[in-house]
Specification:
By secondary structure, the protein is mostly helical. The protein contains 3 helices and no strands. It is 73% helix and 0% strand. The longest helix is centred in the middle third of the chain and has 23 residues, at 27-49.
Length: 86
């Protein structure tokens, strides 16, 4: 997957995760970073738990969903570590 696709999927997934987790937006760059790291986390979990080795493979619904789940997990971990609750 190209860098532009990672950025687009990251932006969509990061924005959706920040809206669902009611943490407010992290800004455009923060949402992109959140989504890209979420895609890495979600892709790792999908490969190991669901036996889907290529879950994040372009700009499609499956990739966005996997990145979204990973981003939600990342937000939850960040809130546990920082102690911030909402």
């Amino acid at each position: 997957m190209g860098i532009l696709a990672w950025i687009v999927v990251g932006l969509i997934a990061g924005w959706l995760a920040s809206q669902v987790m009611r943490g407010g937006s992290y800004g455009v760059i923060g949402d992109i970073i959140l989504g890209v790291v979420g895609a890495l986390i979600g892709g790792f979990l999908a490969a190991n738990l669901l036996n889907m080795p290529d879950a994040v493979n372009g700009i499609n619904v499956t990739s966005i969903l996997v990145a979204f789940v990973g981003a939600v997990i990342l937000i939850a971990i960040l809130r546990m570590v920082s102690g911030r609750r909402r």
